[in-house]
Amino acid sequence: MANMPKIKSRLIIVAILSVLGIIVSAYSLKAHYSITPSTFCDFNSTFNCDAVNKSWASEILGVPVALIGIIGYALILLGSLWLLATQKIANFTWGAMSLASVGGLGFALFLTGVEVFDLHAYCVLCLSSQILMLAITVLIWINTEARQGLCSWFFSSSSS
């Protein structure tokens, strides 16, 4: 990879942030299914994880949003570990990570909008996850390889 030391350090940070995202999302999933109120992040009616984790916005087609988060973070983690292990440009992997990070960030922004404009409540875990996804997206997209990888998904190229 061109400029390998910088890219390697960014991928390591992406991997670490992805692990943190999996942990945060797993705790959110636990809170989603819990029948007892959460004491960890329910501070008041404004900052209340249960109000968000048990709302209409906590599932999409019956699938908990936290589970979608775990899957998204795991895919990004696997992509970053793959790129670190192979130490070469893999357009498919960079493209997948680019799409996953932008999709995750878009999803996070949508959920933030729901918290602000509909629920009028904020989940500290959700906000943490959204910050993690923002950082991951920035770290992925500042690499030229990520943009080239994404382009390779939509435009034919002779190299991979």
Short description:
It contains six helices and two strands.
Structural description of this entry:
The protein has 160 residues and is an all-alpha fold. It has one domain: VKOR domain (de novo design (two linked rop proteins), Up-down Bundle). The protein has 6 helices and 2 strands. The chain has helices spanning 4-33, 49-53, 65-86, 91-119, 124-141, 144-154; strands at residues 59-60, 63-64. The protein has a two-stranded antiparallel sheet. α1 packs antiparallel against α5, α4 runs antiparallel to α5 (124-141) and α4 packs across α6 (144-154). The chain is elongated.
Element layout with pairings:
Blueprint: H1 4-33, H2 49-53, E1 59-60, E2 63-64, H3 65-86, H4 91-119, H5 124-141, H6 144-154
Antiparallel strand pairs: 1-2
Intertermini distance:
12 Å
Helix amount: over 70%
Order of helices and strands: HHEEHHHH
Shape: elongated
Q: What is the spatial order of strands in the main beta sheet?
A: 1-2
Radius of gyration: 17 Å
Q: State mean pLDDT (0 to 100 scale).
A: 87
- CATH superfamily name? VKOR domain
Strand segment tally: 2
Proportion of β residues? under 5%
Sum up the structure in keywords:
160 residues, mainly alpha, de novo design (two linked rop proteins), two-stranded antiparallel sheet, 2 strands
